[in-house]
Amino acid sequence: MTRGFSFAELIVLVVIAVMALVPSITLSSRAFGDPHELIEWSTAQELCLDMIDRFKQYDCDRPLPGTPLESSDSLPPPPLAEAFGPLEVDLNRTTLFDRVYLEQMRNRGFHPMPTIERTPIPGEPGLFLLTITVKWESSSGRSQQVRHRRICYVR
Amino acid sequence: MNERHGLLARFRDGHRPDSECRGFTLLEALISMAVLIVVITVLTEGVRLMSCQLKRATGGLGQIQQATLLLERIRTELSSAVMNPLIGSHDHQGNSFLISEPNGTSIQFVTERQEGSIRQRYLISYEARSREGNPRGPALALRRKEWRFLRSGPWTERFTLSSGWPTAWIGPLVDNKESQYQSLALEDLRWLFLVPDSDEARVFFRVKLVVRSDEEGRLLPLSTLISVPTPDRPEVASRCPCLMAPCFHPEIPDCDCCFESGGRP
Q1: What DSSP string runs through B142-207?
Q2: Distance from the A29 Cα atom to the nearest Cα atom in chain B, whole angstroms
């Protein structure tokens, strides 16, 4: 009636306990480990919000900075530095931030310049739709993207 | 052979071979001790690993949160910075605000806040200084100071960080924080003043900072772009005065349509 555990039962119990502990530790490592994805999403969001702020009042007739010249009649596009992105364009003026940021962007498969689209809104001549998209390949290998849209006034 | 099978069967079933209360054999005791040591080692290592990860994650996330909060605070303060009415936007530097040269690691600007029914002005200073005496610590120490700013109207005078603001304009010190930013582990901080080529009635500040994470010493870059409206804002949102007129189209910016009916827009 009160024989207690046998030796074999004890060993089986210990093995089960270890088998339960190992996945818990692994899960904990993933949960508390390096916040790669948090930093990736945060960087993408920052890039999008910066570019929304930069181009929400940008002259619609002006080509976007750093874009190729469309035709000889069109306005020449301003230099890429006019986008006021996070990276310094002039190599002689780069700082620790630019070096670290560029390296991390490369490691995470980010393009330093997001995709910027300006679309007229049918029936609303004074407004346009500004869409900013940032794409990258996450540390887990999946393709990710963040897209922000905002309706802006034509200047 | 049969006797051996019988012993194994009894061992498997939990029955002791000779009597019901004979105690453990030496082999059982040794195996038990070995299993106990393994279990204790695994448990201790597991708990230690989890504590380390928890500490690192809490520290890392706390540091990111602190840096993000600092950037948000800077954004709020700079967004409501006082910009004097000037002809050229580039002239704001040295007049409306001061940035240290040549590195741009410190800034002083005047910001406005609504307090009750009045708008109160404050002079804000962010100063990043090199830390000396601790080669293993972070490279920069950040100090934020805030004074009441007594000048209520615009000004045309030009200043530098070394000459400073006129003492008559500076009120009492309201806030002086340095220890708050010590755990930030700041490695680099830059303030950039950016002026668009075309007239957008606003200027930009880009703040770039690099913090060092505690455990691995990895560098984490953070940055934000802040737009600040300037007083030379045009009265209309487009080059044509009749933005909402039915005749107006952004792809054909012909402003004549605004004047077709009656001469005045």
Answers
A1: EEEEEEEE---S-------TTT-S-GGGEEEEEEEESGGGGGG-EEEEEEEEE--SS--SEEEEEE
A2: 7
The nearest CA of chain A is from the CA of B219 a distance in Å of 7
Asked whether the beta carbons of residue B210 and residue A155 sit closer than 8 angstroms, the reply is no
Shortest distance between the Cα of A148 and any Cα of chain B, in A, equals 16
Which of A2, A7, A25 should one mutate to test binding to chain B, selecting the residue with the greatest count of B CBs within 10 A? Answer: A7
A82-115: burial string, b at 16+ Cβ within 10 Å, e else: bbbbbbbbeeeeebbbbbbbbebbeebebeebbe
Pair of tokens at residue B261: 């009916």
CB spacing of A28 vs B197 below 8 angstroms: no
pTM value is 0.74
Element (H, E) at B141: strand B140-149
Do A138 and A39 meet the contact criterion of CB atoms below 8 Å apart? no
Q: Which of B210, B227, B250 shows the shortest C-beta gap to A60?
A: B250
User: Pairing between strand A143-153 and B202-212?
Assistant: unpaired
Residue B224 token pair = 């934000």
Q: What is the ipTM of this complex?
A: 0.79
d(CA A58, CA B175): 37
With CA atoms as reference, report the closest residue to B111 among B143, B79, B152: B79
d(C-alpha B81, C-alpha B95), whole Å: 12
Contact predicate B142/B184, CB 8 Å: yes
Query: What ranges do the domains of chain A cover?
Result: 36-153
User: Which tens digits make up the pLDDT trace of B207-259?
Assistant: 999 998 766 678 889 999 999 998 864 444 555 656 555 665 656 656 666 66
Cβ-based burial of B33 (10 A; exposed 0-12, middle 13-18, buried ≥19): exposed
Q: How far apart are CA A90 and CA A128, in angstroms?
A: 32
Is B244 touching A (CB cutoff 8 A)? yes
Q: What's the Cα-to-Cα distance from B86 to each of B69, B78, B109, B153, rounded to whole Å?
A: 32, 18, 16, 14
Give the Cα separation of B84 and A84 in Å (integer): 23
DSSP conformation class of B70: H
Q: What is the rounded distance in angstroms from the CA atom of residue A91 to the CA atom of residue A101?
A: 14
